[in-house]
Prior knowledge:
- The protein starts with 7 loop residues before the first helix and ends with a helix.
- By secondary structure, it is an alpha/beta fold.
- The protein has a seven-stranded mixed sheet, with helices on both faces. A two-stranded antiparallel sheet has the order 7-9. Strands 10-11 form a two-stranded antiparallel ribbon.
- Among the domains are: 8-185, P-loop containing nucleotide triphosphate hydrolases (Rossmann fold, 3-Layer(aba) Sandwich), CATH 3.40.50; 196-285.
- The protein contains 33 helices and eleven strands.
- The relative contact order is 0.08.
Amino acid sequence: xxxxxxxxxxxxxxxxxxxxxxxxxxxxxxxxxxxxxxxxxxxxxxxxxxxxxxxxxxxxxxxxxxxxxxxxxxxxxxxxxxxxxxxxxxxxxxxxxxxxxxxxxxxxxxxxxxxxxxxxxxxxxxxxxxxxxxxxxxxxxxxxxxxxxxxxxxxxxxxxxxxxxxxxxxxxxxxxxxxxxxxxxxxxxxxxxxxxxxxxxxxxxxxxxxxxxxxxxxxxxxxxxxxxxxxxxxxxxxxxxxxxxxxxxxxxxxxxxxxxxxxxxxxxxxxxxxxxxxxxxxxxxxxxxxxxxxxxxxxxxxxxxxxxxxxxxxxxxxxxxxxxxxxxxxxxxxxxxxxxxxxxxxxxxxxxxxxxxxxxxxxxxxxxxxxxxxxxxxxxxxxxxxxxxxxxxxxxxxxxxxxxxxxxxxxxxxxxxxxxxxxxxxxxxxxxxxxxxxxxxxxxxxxxxxxxxxxxxxxxxxxxxxxxxxxxxxxxxxxxxxxxxxxxxxxxxxxxxxxxxxxxxxxxxxxxxxxxxxxxxxxxxxxxxxxxxxxxxxxxxxxxxxxxxxxxxxxxxxxxxxxxxxxxxxxxxxxxxxxxxxxxxxxxxxxxxxxxxxxxxxxxxxxxxxxxxxxxxxxxxxxxxxxxxxxxxxxxxxxxxxxxxxxxxxxxxxxxxxxxxxxxxxxxxxxxxxxxxxxxxxxxxxxxxxxxxxxxxxxxxxxxxxxxxxxxxxxxxxxxxxxxxxxxxxxxxxxxxxxxx
Length: 741
C-alpha cells in the first residue's frame, strides 16, 4: 500500500493529518481554528520539541487527528530537532506516517513558500494546500489564480483566512476528499532534474535510502535521496541516518567538490527555477508604483537608528511588565499562599506534620504559582510579536550582535527577559529553532540580574555601605553599586555565552534565514491559547520539581529538631494563650515565640551543621557559617536569603522590621577577635556570589522541563557555582591585598 494511504479501518485508529508550513504563515492559527480547544501538548520522541496534537470533526461526523509540525522553510535538516519536520511529514522512523499533509501557505509570500510544497509533493505524500491570509492579497497588491496553481502543482488548493475563519468549511471538505481519495493529492514529483550528472547523484544515493523509509516507492526514494544530499555532511547531528546512506552521500559530495560542483545549489536552483518559470501563470503583482504597507512600516522599524530605538522601547515595555506590572498580582498570590500557610500551621499544629504541610508543601506550591503572572505576560508579548510579524524583525536586527558571541538573533528577547526572572526567560527560548541555540541561551540567561536578586543587593548595600556618600560629589554610592551589579552580570553572561559557544556547545554558525512576513493584526484566541498552554506546561512539569525541592529544603532546614526541643516553646504558647486576654497582644507574643523557635531550630538544623562544616571553604570568600545557611536557604528562591538570615537572628518576617533590624544586626555582628564580621568587602563578595551562583531551584526546574534531562540543570548549577566561588574569592582576597575592608 502506498505511503500515506488511509489505514484507519484496519488499524482501528483515527486518520492522521500533519499540518506543516513555513514559520509565520499562520499555521498554528489554522491548527487552532480546526481543532478548537481539543489539543494536547507533548514532545516528539527523543527530542525536546513540542508536539501539539488535536482532533478535528468533519462534516460527516468523522474525527481526524491533527498534528502541528514545527515550522520549517524546507525539509533540509542539520540537527535532530530540524529532522522532526521530515520525520513527522513523511513518517520516517520512529514516527508513524500521516494519512495526508495539510500545507499552510502564506498567500502574500506564495513563491517562497512553494519550495517546501514541492519537496513534500516529491515524497509521494497526499497533499492539500491551504492558502492562508487570502484576505491580505489585495492589500499587498497581489492577484492569485487558484485554478492555475492547482493545475501546476496537481494538488487541491483552498484559500482560507485564519484571522476571519473564511474558507474553513471548504478546507474541511477538501481534507475529507483527500483522505478518501489519496491520489487526489499525490500527483508525483513536479520537478525532476534534467542534468544527467545530478540524476546520477540522486540515483546513487537512492539505492542506500533505507527500505523502511520508502517502502519500495522509487520516486519517494529519489526524493529522500535529494533530502539526504541537502542535509547530510561532516557536521550534521542526524543520528537516524544509516551508515550506508551517510557514506553514499559523503562520497557523492566529495566527487562533486573535486569536479567544482555544488550539489546543494544545483538542487535548490532547480526547484526554484521550476517555481519561477510558472509563477506568472498563477500570481500577478499590481504595479501601482506605491510601497506596500509592510514596506512603509519596515522603513521605520528596520532603520538602524529609529528601528533600534523603537525596539529598545518595546523591550522596555516587556521588561517593565515582567518587573513591575506583574508585581501586584504576584504579591496577591504570595499573600494568598502565606495565609494558606499560616492557616494550615494553625489547623495542623506546630508539629513536624503541620510544619511539613505548611512550610514544605503549601510554600512550594506557592513558589510555583507566584511565577504565573510573569509567565503569562511574557508569552502574551511573545505571541503578540510573533503574530504581528515583529519577532522576525527583532531577530534580523539583533542577529549580527548576537552572532558575534555565538548566539542566535532570537536569543536577545529571552536574555533581556532574564532581568525580570530567569524562569519565563528560559521558557522563551522556545522561539529558537535549533536545540543548540536554545540550550546555550538557557545556560547564560540565569546570569542576568533577575528581580529576585534585588532584595539581596538592597539589604547588603544598605547594611554594609555608606548610603549617604557620593562619588564625584553627586553620584550616590547605593545607586552606583546597583547599576554596577547589572552591568557586571550582563558582561559575564555575554562572556559565558562566547566561551560556551566556542567550547562545550561549539557549532557552525547557521545563517539567519527568514522571510519578513507582512504585518497583521494578531489572532487573539491563538495568543491567549499559547499563554494558557505554556503556563499550564510550566505548572504541571516544572512545578513538580519545585515542590519536591521545596520539601527537601524543608527537611534540610528543620531536622533534627525533636518534640523535646519544641516542648519549651509549646509551654510558652500555652501560657500566653491562657494569660494574655487581648487578641492583638496575644498574636504578637505568639509571633515572638515562633521567631525564637525558628531561630533555635535553624541553628540546630542539618543546614547549620553543613554551614559550620563548610565554613573553612567559605572563609576565603569572607563568609561565616550564618552566611552559609543564608546561601543554602536561598536555593528555594534567592530572596529567601533575607528570611533565612532573619531566622538566624530571630528577626520577624515583617518587611519594615526585617529591613531595619536585620541590617542593624549584620552591622553589629563581630568575629571572635572583635572585628566586624561583615564589612563592605564582605558585602561586595556576597553580591558577586549571588550575581553568578544559580541559587534558584525554579530555574533548574525550568531547565529540566525544557531539556528533559537532569544533565544540563546539574551542569548549569555546577558551572555557575564554580564561577561564583572563583569570582567571589578574587574579589575578597584581591580586596584584602589592596588593603580594603
